[in-house]
Design a protein that fits this description.
Rossmann fold; alpha/beta; 346 residues
Length: 346
C-alpha cells in the first residue's frame, strides 16, 4: 500500500486529489495539510511514501516546504500545481531541493467528475517502483554499428541527474565559459512538459546556449543539449541524436543509462561524464561503460547530493574515476576535456 499525503490550501483541489487517490487500488491518503508549514510538522510525525505538494500556499510555499522536508524528514515529493507553466522557475527550485517530478492538479468538474488524474497516478506508481526495487532495471542502447563521422567532432561532456538535479546542473553550467570548445548533453529526469522550461531556466543561470535536443540533430560545440521527451535520448552510430521508446518498461524516463551507454558505443573519442544527485541507480551502468571506453568519469559526492542514490550506485560499481563535491565538478570537466580538431571523412 502506497501512503500519499496531500498538501494544498484549496478545498476543491484537495477534493479532486482525494477522489483520484481513493479510486486507485493500492493507494491510501495518509494525511492532508493546508500549507507548507503544516506539512513540515505533519511529515515530522508521520513520513508518508509520497507527498503531493502544491507550490503557491499561504504561510509557507511548496518550495520552502520541500526544502525543509527533504532536510528533516526526507521522502518522495511530487509537485502538484494548477499553474505548471506559469511557475516553471518555482518547479525547478523545488526539484533542486529534492522534488522528484511535477504534474498538473487534477480538475474537479461541475458534474463532480475529475479529469487529469491518470498522469498523477502514473507518476505515483513509477515512484513506488523506484522506491521498491530500482536496481534491476536495465537501459538498452541502440545496436552497435560504427560509422565514421564526416563532420568536425567536438569534445563532449555528458551529464546525468535526477532528484536535486536542476540546481546541481545549473551550478556546473554557471562555471563553464561561453566559448568552451565542447558540446554538452544533459539528461535530467523530468516530464517532457517541463523540458522547454528547464532549458530556458538553465540558460538564465549560465552564459552558454541551452536548447532542447532535437531528433536527428548533431552535437554543436558551445551548446548544452537537454533531453526533451519522455522517450530515451540516445546517440546513433552516425553521431546524430534520436529519441526511442525502448526500453518501454524502464522506470527512469529519459534514462541516463540509455544515453550514456549509446555514447560509450558510438562516440569516437573519450570525453567527460558526470553523474549527479538522484534517487535510484540510473546512470551507474552507463557511467561504467564510459569509463571502460576510456572516458573521464565523475560522480557527485554524498555531502553535496540532495539524494545520494545514483552517484552512490556509480561509486559502488567503481564507475567513477573521480568522486567530487558539486563546486569542483565544472573545473574537473574543463580539465579533462580534450578538443578534437581533426576532420573525419565519411
Amino acid at each position: 500500500m502506497i501512503r500519499a499525503a496531500i498538501v494544498n490550501d484549496l478545498p476543491m483541489a484537495v477534493t479532486a486529489l482525494r477522489r483520484v487517490l481513493d479510486a486507485a487500488p493500492g493507494i491510501e491518503v495518509a494525511w492532508t495539510a493546508h500549507d507548507g508549514a503544516e506539512a513540515v510538522e505533519m511529515c515530522a510525525r508521520d513520513v508518508p511514501d509520497v507527498i503531493l505538494m502544491d507550490l503557491i500556499m499561504p504561510v509557507m510555499d511548496g518550495v520552502e516546504a520541500t526544502r525543509r522536508i527533504m532536510r528533516e524528514s526526507p521522502c518522495a515529493v511530487v509537485v502538484v500545481t494548477a499553474t505548471v507553466s506559469g511557475n516553471a522557475g518555482k518547479v525547478f527550485e523545488a526539484m533542486g531541493h529534492g522534488a522528484l517530478d511535477a504534474v498538473a492538479t487534477p480538475v474537479l468538474g461541475l458534474d463532480g467528475a475529475v479529469s487529469g488524474g491518470e498522469e498523477l497516478l502514473k507518476k505515483i506508481f513509477t515512484i513506488a517502483k523506484l522506491l521498491a526495487k530500482p536496481g534491476d532495471a536495465k537501459g538498452q542502447a541502440l545496436p552497435v554499428r560504427a560509422v565514421a563521422p564526416s563532420f568536425r567532432q567536438p569534445a563532449l561532456a555528458v551529464i546525468g541527474a535526477s532528484t536535486g538535479g536542476p540546481k546541481a546542473v545549473a551550478t556546473i553550467l554557471a562555471d563553464i565559459p561561453r566559448d568552451v570548445d565542447a558540446a554538452l548533453v544533459v539528461v535530467q529526469h523530468v516530464d517532457m512538459r517541463f523540458a522547454d522550461g528547464l532549458a530556458e531556466w538553465l540558460a538564465s543561470q549560465c552564459t552558454l546556449r541551452v536548447q532542447v535536443a532535437a531528433d536527428g540533430q548533431r552535437l554543436i560545440p558551445g551548446v548544452v543539449h537537454v533531453a526533451g521527451t519522455n522517450d530515451h535520448l540516445v546517440l546513433r552510430p552516425d553521431l546524430t541524436l534520436c529519441y526511442q521508446a525502448e526500453p518501454v518498461d524502464y522506470p527512469y524516463r529519459p534514462s541516463v543509462d540509455a544515453f550514456f551507454s549509446s555514447v560509450a558505443r558510438h562516440w569516437p573519442s573519450p570525453g567527460v561524464a558526470a553523474l549527479l544527485t538522484g534517487m535510484g541507480r540510473d546512470g551507474a551502468k552507463g557511467l561504467l561503460a564510459l569509463r571502460q571506453a576510456g572516458w573521464s568519469t565523475i560522480a557527485q559526492d554524498q555531502a553535496t547530493s540532495v539524494v545520494y542514490g545514483m552517484p552512490k550506485a556509480a561509486a559502488d560499481l567503481d564507475a567513477a574515476r573521480h568522486i567530487l563535491p558539486l563546486p569542483d565538478i565544472a573545473r574537473a570537466i574543463l580539465d579533462n576535456l580534450v578538443p578534437r580538431s581533426t576532420t573525419h571523412a565519411g
